[in-house]
Amino acid sequence: MAFIPQDALQNLHKYAYKGVDKSPLSKYVLNPFWTWFVTLWPLSVAPNTITLSGLSIVFLNFATVLLYDPAYLTEKGGVVIPSWVYFSCSIGLFMYQSFDAIDGKQARRTGMAGPLGEMFDHGCDAMNTTLEVILAAQALNLGRSWWTVASQMATLANFYLTTWEEYHTGELYLGVFSGPVEGILMIVVIYAISGVYGPSFWDTGILSFLRLTNVPLINQLPDLPLNDSFMVFGAFGVAFNVQASYRNVRRAMLSKGKSTTWPLLLLLPFVVSAAIQLFWLSHPRYDDAVLLNSALFVPFLCAWGLQFAHQVGRMILAHVTSSPFPWWDWMWVWSLVAAVDANLPLIPGRAPLIQTNETNRTLVVYLTLAVSFAAYARFCTLVINDITNFMGIACFTVRKKDKNGVWQDTTPTTAGVAVGPDDKKKL
Prior knowledge:
427 residues, mainly alpha, two-stranded antiparallel ribbon, globular, EC 2.7.8.2
């Protein structure tokens, strides 16, 4: 195989998705809707087609926002986006959540549940994560700011934690309040509010909004803007998720008689990769320009998001193939070289060697975006090819049963060996 080690391929047959969702909202409100919604889709539609359709809606929302605000400025910067754009983002994200929720149901309806769907679903989620951070920050009137960077950091950390937890426990655990359910719905509401009142609404102080400015003691607290308050709330959410995820991992390790501290070391890859990006982004002012205050901010975040998607994609692949945890990613070297070059002015009398002017900075950032995209596209293509070739399935084609009830797959070979009836039953 091109990407998955030969000895790990057999583990694909052993993989079975396990998930726990403790959300009352999901159980009593959303799941009945999803159960009905999936029946609207013909059995001829592959689950991965539904997943990709949902992500395509988000891409359309992203392109629309950048069409009206190409330099990614907020209203403070003089750009006013039409209200319908925010409403479309609200509807689009809700549709993405719905499509993302029913692809598994469609997989069970069509007999296509398996590791390929898990990989494809999480891969789309990883890309959507960064796109929604950028869109939500614009809707919250944050724009180019360290709050947006903090939001990117917190959101990616939550995703990494969930994937790290699933790797060690063998199941995807969603608590009573989780990002894929309540978190997404919060963003849906934020888009809708921005559509009604405009992004500037989020600059209102939280005490002023709650009419607490005249309440003794409480009025001594800082009247943080609503958008900043939302970021603070997110920080507490990350802290809660860290301890909740580790508690689940610790329980799983104890049940297996393994070390409960070793898994903590596997959080370091995210810390290292995020630190490199922050080091690059926080470079000193040189030639009167910094990434945070330039139109390169969005492509920089997108490149970071694609590198992250590659990182967690390898984690998910390790999970479904029962392979060792991926510690290293070669894209770190690329970003580190760029970060060190941008920070050379920290040394008195030194200037960047590569990013010497705005043109070169633009070239480096967009080249990083292109290389990050190419690396992730290569990973997705090779993994999909490996899994489909080995298991005798197709990514976007529904398998059918013959008159004997045996699944007839679209690819007639498994790792170069003809697939027989007994193998098809296993698949």
